[in-house]
Amino acid sequence: MNEPVDRLLSWERSLLQADTLDQWLARVASTPDGAGAGLLLADATHERRPLLLGSEAATGAAASVSFVPSLTGLAPHLLAMRSAWRGAYHAADHALLFPGTTGLRHVVILPLCRAGQVVGLFTAATSDDVPPFAGVSSALLDHAADVICASLERHLDRARVLRGGIVDPLTGWNSPRYLQARLGEEIARAQRAQGSVACLVADVDRLKSLNDELGHGAGDRVLQELAERIESQVRASDTAGRLGSDAFAVVLPATDALQAAPLAQRILAAVRSAPVDTGTGQRRELRVSIGVAACRPQPEQDRKNVADQLVADAVAALHRAKRAGGDRCEILSG
Questions:
Q1: Residues paired with residue 204 on neighbouring β-strands, in sequence order
Q2: Strand, coil or helix: what is 259?
Q3: Is 173 exposed, middle or buried (0-12, 13-18, 19+ CB in 10 A)?
Q4: Once rounded to an integer, what is the mean pLDDT over residues 239-256?
Q5: Residue closest to 231 by CA, chosen among 179, 193, 271, 191
Q6: By the 8 A CB rule, do 190 and 253 touch?
Q7: Lesser CB count within 10 Å: N end or C end of the chain?
């Protein structure tokens, strides 16, 4: 009986059997021998971060998952790796892979390859005399890398399906597709009842500056917090969802623009109420701009055209609020 190999195989099975992304992230960070482990993933398009850390539970795994635009910036030789490497820790070679960690002695690096390209690294390290995965052959470590990569891609694919459906993976809110469908339903209802529909669009002020300074992880935390603060103010009859990268929308049935204004003011107050924990040790004041528009659709009008114009009007009002300095609401009556 080879106990290290048995533990490795059991760990691999636990990765393959993880039902949720949250479970998988927790298990991949818990190596069979207790070595400190993590994932470093190339994310040039910033797609993987929200997919992997989209839920509140998954965000807690951020300490074990890091993202870089390219692995080349860390060390060009990493892109040439095709099999497991293990050896002594050298700060000059490995410090960027284990930031903020001291006293390490042994390192294991598993390249995660897809279509012949290194798309990420699994790293593990120990500070005692026993190296990570002691007693396990290099061939079995290469197999473990394949298991990690395959199970990761499975969860990424599942997250992509979810993202393209009715749920936004970062905030847990309704997706743009679902929001558009609900807006069409409310316009049809307003046509039948000869009523009105309002749309509110909120956008974070100066989010790009925060991303540039503190990283996209901090920006994700800001967006999650903004979603929670907006949700705390909307009515049960309203439909709220993520409209774009840093914009959120609320559909308000049987409401005109002036009736929607109090909600906008409540959201502004909720956003101003307290700084946001960015997850970097820094808290930042959060401000948003809000645009509000409404319409009273006629029975003969095309619902999609009405919906598109209503959202466009709300976005135009939002841009007017931005041009006026932000942290305010503008209303476009219709």
A1: 288
A2: helix
A3: buried
A4: 89
A5: 271
A6: yes
A7: N
Which residue ranges form the domains of the chain, and what is each CATH number?
3-163 (3.30.450.40), 176-332 (3.30.70.270)
CB-neighbour burial class of residue 124 (10 A; exposed 0-12, middle 13-18, buried 19+): buried
Q: What is the pTM of this model?
A: 0.56
What pLDDT, in 10s, does the model give residues 152-199?
A: 998 888 877 766 666 676 777 778 888 888 899 999 999 999 999 999
Task: Report the percent of the chain where pLDDT is more than 70.
Answer: 91
Count of other CB atoms within 10 angstroms of residue 99: 8
pLDDT value for 55: 47
User: Which residue is listed with tokens 């482990």?
Assistant: 37
Give the chain's length. Answer: 334
The letter for the amino acid at 254 is A
**Rounded-to-integer distance, Cα 185 and Cα 196, Å:** 12
> pLDDT digit string (tens) for 36-59?
888 999 887 766 776 776 544 444
> Strands 106-114 and 85-88, how do they pair?
antiparallel
Strands 106-114, 117-126: pairing is antiparallel
Q: Please state, in angstroms and rounded to a whole number, the distance separating the CA atoms of residues 78 and 50.
A: 25
At 135, the amino acid letter reads G
